[in-house]
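sorry for the late reply, my laptop died twice this morning and i had to redo everyting from scratch. anyway the thing you sent over, i finally got around to it. pasting the sequence first so we're on the same page, its 444 residues, then the predicted structure underneath. double check i copied it right bc i was rushing
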Amino acid sequence: MIDLKRLQNAVMTSDKQAMIAIAEAYRPIDLAESLEKLNHDGQNKLIQSLPSALSAEILEFVEPLLLYRILDHLEVDLTARVLNEMSSDVVVDMMLAIHRYQAEKLLNLLPADYRERVQTLMTFPEETAGSLATIDYIAAPGTWTIDTTLAHIRKVGREAEITAYIYVTGMKGELQGVVSLKKIILAEPHTQLRDIADEPISVPALMEQEEAADLLSRYDWVALPVVDMQNRLIGAITVDDLIDVIQEEATEDIQMLGGSQPLEDVYFKTSIFHLYRKRIIWLLILFVAEAYTGTVLRHYEDTLSDAISLAFFIPLLIGTGGNTGTQTVSTLVRALAVGEVHFRDIFRVIRKELMTALMTGVTIATVAFARAWMLGVELNVGFVVGITALMIVIWASLVAAILPLILHKLKADPAVISGPFITTLVDGTGLIIYFSIAKILLNL
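ok and here's the structure:
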């Protein structure tokens, strides 16, 4: 952990050597967190005092708007050096977050070729593979020998973010193969790249980030090439960027499963009013939906008055249905997210969940009947409670198994079928099941 007071003192006294010593002793991500805690003057002093390469490493972990503010207050030459040292995907994120006139001003500080490639990445929509791609990779023609390739790696490797793979390209920049650095090191000097290249597995630039993350995870790679519609290599996505995507998607799913809209920022940077806005919509929807439970109770008012003991078990039964549905939907949403289950598996899922529900339902029905017997209600009421518990468990499992799969097929986020939503849905329908069984078995 960085000694923030020591860093602040070094900045306040403009002790350049102390600032460099502190920066070299810690990891860039930790320095970025400390940088955010300094005031504006302190941030500028620290970045100006460090070598441009080290400043670039630190600033890669800073939020885009703060990154722009710092760069905008540096001398033009230093801004240009830092920009050219930074990963292209970080530069693209910042350019897209600021006003286009501000972006043009910074883009003009980049070399023409680099600027053109950055502008290409800026054209891809958010949450696509193209928007995550970096152009800091190493490519080489398939006709190059190992000796020539190694000389090229030594020349450009320091500027590349991805050195684990060398991408083999054709005359028009089309992706023809991929070679790991390990293969290159172990190959004979006069071997041509195309002779040891593997068949590339790439992703189109417009593929969703989540799909790209699943693909990278499946093959255990550290980078994934991104191509355009003509199969020309336009960049590569690194594993660290896709880990961020996986974390964001998992966080979003967890928040939606809790019955809340996902937050755009971290918890402590989210205002109270923003939390209110994210939660109140779902709460109001669930509140209105829950109101139909009262309508069901009113409809069966005569049944309740004839057998008042039925009311004792309403919280128990609807709670059991909600819990069952939440368990099922949570399991399936996660299975869908990691690609274990697809819509084509719907009948397998239904069969599996129904068998599980039958087993759990019989167990819960037995306990529910025992509970009714312990309360001293009539035996036939106990049978109603037990049978209803079984039916509600089966019904809740069926609904919670089908809805996420249908939503996934419709390209909607299955996490919207959250625990609270399933609970609310099962509450009302569970009461209908309960009173319908009671009317049949008790002759009410």
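The chain has a mean pLDDT of 84.
thats about all i looked at so far, will dig more tmrw
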